[in-house]
């Protein structure tokens, strides 16, 4: 971590009391050897908003995501989430603070049941320790029952009907696996939900349903949602603000309307000729 | 998927049958060359009818011929006609017979005894059924053909008729293999007359064989024909009745477990005690490998630490010379165990799969070599080990000898099974499973993978160490030779055999892999050969283990169809995507 980011952290701390943005990213860079995957990216997520990061394949979107969730340690820059600097924290600590995520190529616990997948998602909100579990205390039993209950509610919320719950996750059709992943992420009661290409591999009908569902989640759960997409059409409808990455740099930021007409964005997506 | 099966292709099935027959024949050659056929010539399955030696070859051919008649499921073919099935079985027998006859010719023409010391004239005599010259070859061929015919005939029956027959044949074989064990029990119970009615000259008598066959046939047939109806009737009983029936059954099992050592006598109690130690280790390693997915090949390290820690603390002649009471020492051993688990676990936290296996394998060896080393001889006693470990004392009773030691071991096995079960069904077990499935995602879901790995290692280590502690007091002396890689392999094998992640599986696996070899001492020479064969067969036929946990069984057998198809079948076809659209 550089000096600069240390200063930034101190400045941010008082500024992120309740009304401020949920997440503030400043000058975030990630280098892999000589390759610069993210260069000095500034970015923020207001509370209860839906924001998106778009960019062509290889623009550095997933690298950016992986830094937010603790998978990668940033080379420099700061990430402040709800008043806490999370840059370089371990993934499990980030999850505990209230960030849930899904994956571009679905990563469920395939050989566990649908219900167990969601219950694992609830892990960080559970208190019982191994010695309590060993003694089979009533508090443990109660907690397990509550967890099961909550997991079922979430399955209902994402539209996986209850009778799937004992099914192995890997046996679900593709679209249902995506839903299950979202249910698992929601189980930790996140303040911010990161969705990595949630409509990848879906047909237009399913895509429309999914975008509708994302809007509904924000309203019903009051959480903020950060979407990553390379398909511009998907994010235009749902996001309030869009950040565009290309070659690891932020090339534009604004409302969907601004982004649609931004020549830099059009160039990044369609090549130079299209800008004329 | 049944609508998409290809029509059967008899030529392909016959080709496979010939291949299988040749393999069975080679298996027979192998059994002859390693000496099994001749060695067990005098050991009878049914006295005067079936000597065990030749029967091993016969069974190989029978199994091959039975398998040959049915195309493997992944060929996606319809069932062959009965005639084709019979032909396939017969062809298998013929191919096996051909290989065996060629072997006889080779043994007769060339003297192979320099290379294969077991290819004696005695072997030739056995294989040619005691008949000299070409007539003997014909006899061998006829035997193989008739074995093929028997397998083919079995396929002519309906499956529900076939299964009881196979079960009854297997029961006769098993009953005769258990002869040393059962004889011992009968003598213990002073039932000499019964023993000599059932067993004569190390084999079942003909009347006894017939009775066993008929009884098992009847029971098995009842189960196939009426089993479902009976189960339905039981399920229809009121909840309370069923629960009290369960309690009564548990009580009876408990009672049986309590009187068991007095029924079994010293030798068998000793065997069961050893099995108990392996169950404890299996339960512990099952937490590490089965639940948390950390392949640990050095589990013997914990067993050794437990045994040596107990020895050091309790033996008056150890380097510490404390002479502590066993029950005082045990908590200390458990704490040492947990710390050892963490010490061994910490450096391998970042390793997975094969790498983890290799490093833990190394740890196991390091512990053994340290115990054996000259440098540490003043502490651990080098190759001599530590002597004079006193037995545990409860009140005035010294728990010496297998019969007395059976009880504390039983208590710890019950406790261990409870601990394993309760952890597996808690938040902890879920976190372990998630880690096994995908470590990165588990971390992103908020699971502290470091802590959970260390917890798995520590708990696994405690199980191993408790087993080691009882091992030390059981034999009264510890030394490094008994603490080698084979212990780790046995524990891992019994988990695989019983079924990864399954507690019942561990118990069954320990009895099969540790108990049976003790009872079947007469096969001790071929123990590792049988071990290997059993494990290979298991991996091919039932990779999920004998008593798998439910999800794992599904996982391995869903491959027969595509996952999607299975899912559609179970859930029905209405798997649309209605609910995501907002209400």
Question: Could you walk me through the main structural features you see in this protein, from its secondary elements to its overall organization?
Answer:
The complex is a heterodimer of chains A (276) and B (583). With 276 residues, chain A is of the alpha/beta class. Chain A has a domain of 71 residues. In chain A, the strands form 2 sheets. Chain A has a 6-stranded mixed beta sheet, with helices on both faces. A 4-stranded antiparallel beta sheet of chain A has the order 2-1-4-5. The longest helix of chain A has 21 residues. Chain A is globular. Chain B folds into 3 domains: 156 residues, no CATH class; 67 residues, no CATH class; 295 residues, no CATH class. Helix content of chain B is 71%, strand content 2%. Chain B contains 24 helices and 6 strands. Chain B has a two-stranded antiparallel sheet with strand order 1-2. In chain B, helix 1 packs parallel to helix 4, helix 8 crosses helix 11 and helix 20 crosses helix 21. The two termini of chain B are 36 Å apart. The C terminus of chain B is likely disordered. At the A-B interface, helix 3, helix 4, helix 5, helix 6 and helix 7 of A face helix 16, helix 17, helix 18, helix 19 and helix 23 of B.
Keyphrases for this structure?
heterodimer, A: 276 residues, alpha/beta, 6-stranded mixed beta sheet, 4-stranded antiparallel beta sheet, disordered N terminus, B: 583 residues, two-stranded antiparallel ribbon, 71% helix
Give a quick rundown of the structure.
With 276 residues, chain A is of the alpha/beta class. Chain A has eleven helices and ten strands. Chain A has helices at 3-15, 61-68, 91-97, 114-121, 130-135, 138-158, 174-186, 204-221, 232-238, 256-261, 263-270; strands at 23-32, 35-45, 50-54, 76-81, 84-85, 99-101, 192-196, 224-229, 241-246, 249-254.
**What's the alpha carbon Rg of chain B, rounded to whole Å?**
27 Å
Q: Could you tell me how far the N terminus lies from the C terminus of chain B, measured between alpha carbons in angstroms? A: 36 Å
Q: Give the integer mean of the pLDDT values of chain B.
A: 85
The largest beta-sheet of chain B arranges its strands as 1-2
Going by helix content, strand content and strand pairing, the class of chain A is: alpha/beta
Into which percentage range does the β-strand content of chain B fall? under 5%
**How many E-type strands of chain B?**
6
**What's the main sheet of chain B like?**
2 strands, antiparallel
Count of discrete structural domains of chain B = 3
Order of helices and strands of chain A: HEEEHEEHEHHHHEHEHEEHH
The rough form of chain B would be described as: globular
Please report the number of helical segments of chain A: 11
What is the rounded Rg of chain A? 20 Å
The major sheet of chain A is characterized as: 6 strands, mixed
Question: What does the average pLDDT of chain A come to?
Answer: 85
């Amino acid at each position: 971590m550089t000096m600069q980011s240390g200063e930034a952290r101190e400045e941010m701390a008082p500024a992120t009391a309740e009304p401020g943005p949920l997440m503030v990213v400043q000058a975030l860079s990630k280098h892999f050897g000589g390759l610069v995957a993210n260069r000095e990216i500034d970015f923020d997520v207001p509370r209860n908003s839906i924001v998106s990061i778009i960019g062509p394949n290889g623009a550095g979107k997933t690298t950016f995501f992986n830094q937010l969730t603790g998978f990668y340690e940033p080379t420099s820059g700061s990430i402040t989430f709800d008043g806490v600097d999370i840059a370089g924290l371990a993934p499990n600590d980030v999850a505990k603070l209230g960030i849930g995520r899904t994956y571009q190529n679905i990563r469920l616990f395939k050989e566990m049941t649908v219900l167990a997948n969601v219950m694992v998602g609830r892990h960080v909100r559970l208190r019982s320790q191994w010695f309590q579990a060993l003694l089979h205390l009533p508090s443990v039993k109660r907690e397990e029952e509550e967890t099961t209950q909550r997991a079922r509610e979430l399955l209902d919320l994402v539209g996986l009907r209850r009778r799937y719950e004992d099914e192995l996750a890997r046996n679900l059709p593709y679209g249902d696996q995506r839903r299950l992943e979202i249910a698992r992420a929601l189980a930790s009661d996140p303040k911010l939900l990161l969705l990595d290409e949630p409509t990848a591999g879906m047909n237009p009908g399913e895509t429309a349903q999914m975008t509708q569902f994302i809007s509904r989640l924000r309203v019903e759960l009051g959480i903020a949602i950060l979407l990553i997409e390379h398909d511009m059409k998907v994010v235009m409808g749902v996001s309030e603000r869009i950040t565009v990455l290309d070659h690891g740099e932020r090339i534009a930021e604004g409302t969907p309307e601004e982004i649609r007409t931004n020549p830099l964005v059009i160039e990044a997506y369609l090549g130079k000729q299209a800008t004329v | 998927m049944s609508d998409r099966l290809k029509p059967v292709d008899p030529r392909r099935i016959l080709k496979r049958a010939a291949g299988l027959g040749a393999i069975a024949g080679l298996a027979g050659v192998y059994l002859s060359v390693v000496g099994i056929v001749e060695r067990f010539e005098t050991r009878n399955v049914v006295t005067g009818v079936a000597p065990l030696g030749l029967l091993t070859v016969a069974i190989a051919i029978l199994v091959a011929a039975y398998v040959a008649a049915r195309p493997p499921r992944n060929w996606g073919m319809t069932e062959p006609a009965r005639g084709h099935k019979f032909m396939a079985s017969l062809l298998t027998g013929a191919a096996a017979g051909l290989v065996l006859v060629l072997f006889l010719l080779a043994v007769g023409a060339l003297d192979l005894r320099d290379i294969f010391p077991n290819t004696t004239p005695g072997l030739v005599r056995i294989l040619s059924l005691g008949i000299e010259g070409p007539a003997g070859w014909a006899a061998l061929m006829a035997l193989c053909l008739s074995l093929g015919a028997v397998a083919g005939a079995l396929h002519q029956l309906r499956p529900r008729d076939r299964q009881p027959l196979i079960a009854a044949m297997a029961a006769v074989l098993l009953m005769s293999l258990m002869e040393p064990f059962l004889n011992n029990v009968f003598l213990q119970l002073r039932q000499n007359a019964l023993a000599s009615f059932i067993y004569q000259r190390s084999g079942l008598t003909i009347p006894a064989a017939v009775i066993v066959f008929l009884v098992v046939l009847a029971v098995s047939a009842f189960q196939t024909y009426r089993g479902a109806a009976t189960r339905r009737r039981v399920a229809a009983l009121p909840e309370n009745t069923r629960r009290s029936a369960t309690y009564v059954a548990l009580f009876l099992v408990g009672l049986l477990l309590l009187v068991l050592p007095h029924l079994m006598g010293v030798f068998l109690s000793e065997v069961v005690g050893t099995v108990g130690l392996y169950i404890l280790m299996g339960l512990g390693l099952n937490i590490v490998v089965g639940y948390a997915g950390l392949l640990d090949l050095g589990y013997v390290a914990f067993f050794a630490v437990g045994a040596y820690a107990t020895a050091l603390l309790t033996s008056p002649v150890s380097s510490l010379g404390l002479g502590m009471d066993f029950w005082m020492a045990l908590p200390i051993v458990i704490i040492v165990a947990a710390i050892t688990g963490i010490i061994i676990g910490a450096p391998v936290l970042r390793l997975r799969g094969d790498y983890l296996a290799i490093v833990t394998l190394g740890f196991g060896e390091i512990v053994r070599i340290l115990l054996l080393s000259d440098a540490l001889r003043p502490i651990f006693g080098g190759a001599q080990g530590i002597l004079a470990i006193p037995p545990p004392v409860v009140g005035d009773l010294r728990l010496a000898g297998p019969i007395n030691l059976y009880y504390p071991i039983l208590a710890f096995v019950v406790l261990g099974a409870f601990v394993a079960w309760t952890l597996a069904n808690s938040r902890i077990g879920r976190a372990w499973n998630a880690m096994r499935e995908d470590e990165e995602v588990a971390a992103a879901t908020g699971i502290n993978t470091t802590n959970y790995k260390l917890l798995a290692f520590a708990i696994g280590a405690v199980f191993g160490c408790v087993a080691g502690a009882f091992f030390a007091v059981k034999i009264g002396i510890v030394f490094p030779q008994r603490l080698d890689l084979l212990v780790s392999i046995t524990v891992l094998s019994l988990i695989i055999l019983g079924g990864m992640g399954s507690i019942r599986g561990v118990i069954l696996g320990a009895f099969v892999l540790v108990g049976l070899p003790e009872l079947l001492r007469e096969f001790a020479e071929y123990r590792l050969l049988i071990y290997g064969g059993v494990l290979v067969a298991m991996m091919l036929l039932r990779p999920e283990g004998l008593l798998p946990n439910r999800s794992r069984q599904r996982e391995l057998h869903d491959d027969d169809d595509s996952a999607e198809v299975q899912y559609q079948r179970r859930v029905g076809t209405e798997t649309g995507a209605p609910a995501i659209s907002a209400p």
